């Protein structure tokens, strides 16, 4: 009786595993194929920015910052209320996302390089030389 | 994102495999080329574990991760392992021959074929994946970039980035991957996690293929691989899946030691569990529950078995000490729970909710299909077969695992009690109990068949 029960149990376990594995194997392949297609369909910049797309408002800002700020320099991200077209994630997370993206550049509270996200330029503490800006209120520059 | 980057990543992982083969030679010996091929996956995971542990020590000592340290560390491990193996009387396999592998059964051929197709699809999906995961760009990859760009545990970034207490195996591995791919290529980086999953699968199959019937091995493994969470998240450049993989293999080797008493499995388990602790702080919880479950499951032979189990646990814990010292020396977060000690009683109302959350995630069909019910059924089969130790061990792993995961929500009152991944990591944490199911179900279904619990002892 006990042996029969264990045999039935073992076959049941194998059958359940095999049954669900077969059905979901097909679904998994379909899902993975779609992921592969979606990933290859996006542009180089969309793929590189990835999670930042829901934060940045303007991809160009990140690329300009990376192009203009030298790799061994420090920078600070300053946010403010003068931003347009923000997402709910922009102001809370733009600083930490740019920290990831702009490495090896180091964030520092008193850095001269500024990534301004709708910031109050008058409060930056010096003469702000704008090197790049867009119509959303993002600018990039240096304090002199 | 280039082919060259993939070739570089392949070279890194072949290096890890080579180091692991030497380690396996030292702790077990390799009787034949077929043996080497069969246990290649385990060798890879052991190589990764040894290198990860040593990278952690090197980083805490102020060294960096570079081509030179990756090669020098691997070379030192491999030479030491070969010397130890030679001293222990291990011999290298003679002429290359894979005859001992035999002809696979139809089930094994079908299971192996489906797994290869699955891994190929997963590779394509990860090949051009962007870094979307919050934790990935928030701290896992920035830590890796900091190691890559600044040559070590940079004081500023490892203080300012979230989760200071998280150990550095994954960032170190990612930094090594950046060196081999030729830059901080966060897209190709996803494929490093493909190698880890492939290594885990190969390791599991290699360990079990000679011990259990193919029918008990492949269906549970495939079931776990096709669960929605594994399909969707296995290649995220984070620590969760590596923790799950190391824990599952470590628990399997401890379970085998309980029935076979081959000491090399315990040595290998110590390395894997130490690496799991140095992958993510939850590793402490999972490593401890494996040791505790093994101690209780072997309580009838405590005098004979407990010293070795205790030694294994202590050895695994000692390997993680340098990282704890670094946290103290640098005055970084310890990672201790928010509601430690009596704090749990102050938040007693969260206890039941946390348990319900854990169970609802583990049994959530849309996340893990029916993996856990199958695990429980396999325990019942093991008991009905007359086995004792393995079903008790597996039951305790699940029981302690559920208790630990409940605690993981309960002891952090700032975590909302929700399955929402952005707010509570419970879904990712349950992966350990799911992957270990793929490892334990085959031996549970086989347990007790024959004169003793030990199936074909290899």
Can you describe what's shown?
The complex is a heterodimer of chains A (144) and B (458). Chain A has 144 residues and is α/β, with parallel strands linked by helices. Chain A has helices at residues 2-41, 44-49, 59-68, 90-102, and strands at residues 74-79, 106-107, 113-117, 128-133, 138-143. A five-stranded mixed sheet of chain A has the order 2-1-3-5-4, covered by helices on one side. In chain A, a hairpin with a 4-residue loop joins strand 4 (128-133) and strand 5. Chain A is elongated and about 90 Å long. The mean pLDDT of chain A is 94. Chain B has 458 residues and is mainly α. Chain B contains 23 helices and no strands. Chain B has helices spanning 3-27, 33-38, 40-60, 67-87, 106-127, 134-150, 155-160, 169-181, 189-208, 214-225, 228-233, 240-260, 263-277, 282-297, 302-318, 321-329, 343-346, 349-362, 365-368, 371-384, 389-410, 426-429, 431-446. In chain B, helix 3 (40-60) packs across helix 13 (263-277) and helix 14 (282-297) packs antiparallel against helix 21. Chain B is globular. Mean pLDDT of chain B is 93; it is low at 451-458. At the A-B interface, helix 1, helix 2, helix 4 and strand 2 of A face helix 5, helix 6, helix 7, helix 10 and helix 11 of B.
């Amino acid at each position: 009786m006990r042996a029969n029960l264990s045999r039935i149990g073992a076959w049941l376990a194998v059958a359940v595993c095999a049954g669900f594995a077969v059905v979901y194997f097909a679904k998994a392949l379909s899902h993975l194929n779609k992921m592969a297609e979606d990933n290859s369909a996006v542009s180089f910049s969309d793929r590189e920015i990835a999670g930042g797309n829901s934060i940045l408002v303007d991809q160009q800002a990140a690329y300009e910052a990376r192009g203009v700020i030298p790799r061994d320099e420090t920078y600070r991200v300053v946010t403010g209320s003068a931003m347009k077209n923000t997402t709910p994630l922009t102001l809370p997370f733009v600083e930490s996302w740019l920290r990831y993206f702009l490495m090896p550049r180091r964030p520092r509270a008193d850095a001269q390089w500024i990534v301004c996200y709708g910031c109050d330029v008058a409060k930056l503490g010096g003469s702000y030389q704008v090197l790049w800006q867009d119509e959303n209120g993002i600018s990039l520059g240096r304090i002199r | 994102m280039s082919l060259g980057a993939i070739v570089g990543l392949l070279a890194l992982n072949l290096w890890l495999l080579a180091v692991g083969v030497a380690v396996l030679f030292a702790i077990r010996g390799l009787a034949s080329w077929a043996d080497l091929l069969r246990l290649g996956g385990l060798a890879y995971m052991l190589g990764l574990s040894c290198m990860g542990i040593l990278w952690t020590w090197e980083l805490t000592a102020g060294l960096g991760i570079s081509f030179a340290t990756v090669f020098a560390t691997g070379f030192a491990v491999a030479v030491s392992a070969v010397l130890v193996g030679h001293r222990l009387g291990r011999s290298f396999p003679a002429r290359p021959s894979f005859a001992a592998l035999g002809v696979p059964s139809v089930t094994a051929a079908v299971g192996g074929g489906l797994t290869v197709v699955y891994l190929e699809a997963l590779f394509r999906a990860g090949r051009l994946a962007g870094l979307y995961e919050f934790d990935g760009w928030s701290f896992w990859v920035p830590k890796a970039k900091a190691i890559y760009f600044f040559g070590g545990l940079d004081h500023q970034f490892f203080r300012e980035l979230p989760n200071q207490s998280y150990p550095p195996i994954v960032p170190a591995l990612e930094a090594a991957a950046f060196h081999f791919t030729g830059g901080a290529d966060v897209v190709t980086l996803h494929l490093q996690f493909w190698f880890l999953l492939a290594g885990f699968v190969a390791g599991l199959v290699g360990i079990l293929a000679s011990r259990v019937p193919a029918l008990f091995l492949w269906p549970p493994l495939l079931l776990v691989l096709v669960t929605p969470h594994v399909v969707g998240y296995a290649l995220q450049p984070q620590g969760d899946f590596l923790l799950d993989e190391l824990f599952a293999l470590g628990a399997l080797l401890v379970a085998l030691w309980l029935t076979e008493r081959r000491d090399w499995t315990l040595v290998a388990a110590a390395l894997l569990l130490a690496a799991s602790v140095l992958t993510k702080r939850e590793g402490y919880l999972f490593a401890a529950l494996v040791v505790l479950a093994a101690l209780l499951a072997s309580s009838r032979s405590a005098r004979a078995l407990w010293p070795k189990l205790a030694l294994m646990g202590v050895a695994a814990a000692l390997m993680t000490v340098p990282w704890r010292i670094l946290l103290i020396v640098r005055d970084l977060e310890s990672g201790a729970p928010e509601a430690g000690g009596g704090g749990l009683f102050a938040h007693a109302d969260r206890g039941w909710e946390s348990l319900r959350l854990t169970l609802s995630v583990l049994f959530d069909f849309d996340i893990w299909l029916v993996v856990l019910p199958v695990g429980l059924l396999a325990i019942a089969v093991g008991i009905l077969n007359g086995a004792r130790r393995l079903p008790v061990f597996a039951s305790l792993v699940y029981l302690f695992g559920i208790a630990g995961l409940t605690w993981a929500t309960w002891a952090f009152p700032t975590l909302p009690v929700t399955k929402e991944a952005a707010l509570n990591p419970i879904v990712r944490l349950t992966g350990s109990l799911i992957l270990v199911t793929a490892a334990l179900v085959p031996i549970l279904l086989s347990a007790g068949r024959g004169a003793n619990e030990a199936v074909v002892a290899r």
